[in-house]
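tokens incoming
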């Protein structure tokens, strides 16, 4: 994954660029970079941020850089921004996305006169440099950006910093967000809509899918109209997005409250009713929730919780907390924090490629509150279950700390497919997913699309048995995932506007 920020001002922009880029630090942990343009031309600084935060690595650069326009990047992959000189002129470029047809595009570039690639990341060609090579095959920057949108299979959102401003291009299907903020004598372009609020900017413009604009200190000029079809990433609301951000007008924190509320309603068997008798059951009254036609029909993944009585609801920090608050508010079960995240450690424990390192980081960042764990029945909400290692160890850690029961409610459906568009995980294989390992054990190595679709269906027997296998493997007392139809309801956009590939394999 990754994020970026750009600014064009009639004055020096370096401080705005520094803080605006730093506000994207939750999106990446490997590389940070800034490029500016001013009287001295282009200047650039790139640092490794794996063991030190962006703000620490770039504090000295702020004193040395100067310019009235700039772009910055936080990345989990290639170093950027890159400085490019071509027949289209000089520019700096940052990108967010993933290229699935890399070999085809490299071959195409060589056949069309591109001689070599300079930037290699982990033995692979830098995706940002490859994107620049595609752009440079055309006769103008706008033509090149449109060409890149057509040629790249996957997703690619792009900022180009030129002497006359910033060209911003949202990816073809709008899988990632892109917004413009404005204040007196300055404009900015940002992945996260909250990143410019404390800098004095106000919301100005939100790009549509595939839209291209030019931004200068005076405002925004549309260069290419948005496309009609949108597939924005659903996982932004579930996990990756910062709580204060909004995408397509829908705030992340508010969505997570709704998600928790709907999870609670499923558990209680009321499907949206805020005041049904089932709420008394979940809150521990001891009465049985009345069975209705709809509740009786539910499968094991969504049956009423009339046999469990959690003492507290908790969220795995930090992304699970808002979901848990929504659940607690709806169910009447008290919200509490039985463990606290030690914030100076890694913000994303799945980012290291080494599994043993991931396990250690996941363990070390959570500190228990014994008084809220011992002899307690806990209902825990995590944003998702990917490999299962972290949540399984967290559960064992809770049992060792005296918990009587640990009930798990992930805030999204089971992940069945690796992301094809945004690189949000370092998984090298879909068998890194606990769901796919269980399916392989049940079905063998060659699983058809039809069978996978059945496992993705929350009303199927295969789905129920897969969930039960996950529960037993990770030693949860109970396990119920958020349903995809409920997730769509939580977000509030039509399903056809959302990318749900990682859950149902649908493009």
């Amino acid at each position: 994954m990754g994020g970026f920020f750009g600014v064009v001002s009639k004055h020096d922009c370096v401080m705005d660029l520094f803080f605006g880029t730093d506000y994207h630090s939750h999106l990446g942990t490997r590389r940070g970079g800034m490029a500016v343009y001013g009287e001295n031309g282009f200047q650039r600084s790139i640092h490794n941020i794996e063991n030190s935060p962006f703000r620490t690595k770039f504090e000295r650069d702020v004193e040395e850089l100067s310019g009235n326009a700039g772009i910055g990047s936080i990345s989990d992959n290639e170093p950027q921004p890159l400085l490019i000189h071509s027949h289209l002129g000089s520019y700096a470029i940052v990108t967010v996305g993933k290229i699935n047809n890399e070999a085809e595009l490299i071959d195409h570039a060589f056949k069309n006169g591109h001689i070599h690639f300079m930037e290699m990341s982990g033995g692979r060609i830098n995706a940002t440099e490859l994107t620049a090579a595609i752009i440079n095959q055309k006769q103008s920057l706008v033509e090149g950006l449109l060409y890149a949108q057509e040629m790249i299979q996957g997703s690619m959102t792009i900022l180009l910093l030129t002497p006359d401003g910033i060209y911003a291009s949202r990816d073809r299907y709008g899988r990632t967000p892109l917004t413009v903020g404005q204040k007196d004598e300055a404009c900015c372009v940002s992945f996260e809509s909250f990143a410019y609020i404390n800098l004095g900017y106000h919301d100005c413009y939100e790009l549509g899918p595939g839209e291209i604009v030019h931004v200068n200190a005076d405002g925004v000029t549309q260069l290419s109209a948005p496309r009609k079809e949108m597939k924005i990433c659903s996982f932004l609301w579930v996990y990756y997005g910062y709580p204060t951000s909004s995408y397509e007008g829908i705030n992340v924190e508010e969505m997570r409250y709704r998600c928790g509320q709907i999870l609670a309603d499923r558990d209680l068997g009321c499907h949206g009713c805020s005041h049904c008798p089932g709420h008394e059951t979940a809150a521990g009254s001891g009465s049985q929730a009345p069975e209705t036609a709809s509740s009786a029909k539910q499968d094991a993944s969504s049956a009423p919780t009339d046999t469990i009585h959690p003492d507290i609801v908790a969220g795995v920090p930090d992304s699970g907390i808002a979901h848990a608050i929504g659940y607690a508010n709806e169910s009447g079960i008290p919200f509490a924090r039985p463990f606290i995240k030690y914030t100076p450690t890694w913000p994303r424990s799945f980012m290291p490629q080494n599994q043993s390192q991931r396990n250690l980081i996941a363990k070390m960042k959570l500190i228990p509150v014994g008084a809220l764990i011992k002899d307690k029945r806990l209902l825990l909400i995590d944003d998702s279950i990917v490999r299962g290692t972290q949540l399984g160890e967290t559960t064992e850690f809770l049992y060792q700390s005296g918990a009587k029961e640990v009930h798990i409610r992930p805030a999204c459906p089971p992940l069945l497919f690796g992301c094809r568009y945004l690189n949000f995980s370092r998984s090298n294989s879909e068998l890194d997913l606990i769901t796919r390992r269980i399916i392989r054990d049940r079905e063998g190595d060659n699983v058809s699309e039809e069978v996978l679709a059945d496992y993705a269906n929350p009303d199927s027997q295969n789905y129920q048995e897969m969930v039960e296998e996950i529960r037993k493997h990770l030693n949860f007392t109970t396990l119920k995932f958020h349903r995809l139809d409920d997730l769509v309801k939580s977000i509030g956009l039509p399903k056809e506007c959302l990318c749900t590939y990682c859950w149902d394999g649908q493009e």
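note: The chain has two domains: 2-230, 251-504.
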